[in-house]
Amino acid sequence: MREKYLEEDALLLVEQNFYFLQTGAFFTTLSKEYNLSHSCNLQIIKEFDKAQVYRFNENIIRQVLENAKESSKEETILFEYFVEMNAFRGICMAMVEALKLERGFKHFLQEKLAHQFDSFVDIISFVRNVLSHNIHADIYLDEKDYEGTLKRILRCRRDPNVHFDFLYSRDLEEIQSPAPEYGFKCTINFQNLNNNTPFLEVISLWELMMLSELCFNLVIAYRLSKTS
User: Fold this and answer.
1) What's the structural domain count of the chain?
2) What is the pTM of this model?
């Protein structure tokens, strides 16, 4: 019974982090298009009870908003970066925790992803490990980010050049995709990874977005399978 609740908590975290990612993108776009530092009340107060009130720093909020407005649409601002990296980390951490449990969600993914299940686990574990250790600008790999995954791959006598190729129309038909060719590919050669390699050279920001969306959609598909 406890594992049932642990699984549900993990799946809920995947969903919540994906909502956070989507809403964060909206507020990022809003802050770049509109000068919120002058059009909004920046005196933000959070009351916990009558004796406990916290006042947020108006100057810091204004500085972040002004930086956003001065940035181009292509530039990544501080708020945007931390939303994305924290969401990626949260989604992959929750997925890994859910898959540690020998329950329905893991069995569902094993059936859906078939021979690609292990590759999927390798990739989300790698992302979880890297972003658990740091999410500051210019993330570089450390041996502890990938050595555990590489050892598991070699122990299972699998190819360390991990390739994941996902197509919604083929692999997850219950989730309606915007186009028949909608999907993504991701390849990581764990044997070629080195310390101080830039994280985003191993897996791109677009791949992280698509991976996060897939995690969310797998949770949705699993929930649909339980109600059908």
Assistant:
1) 1
2) 0.92
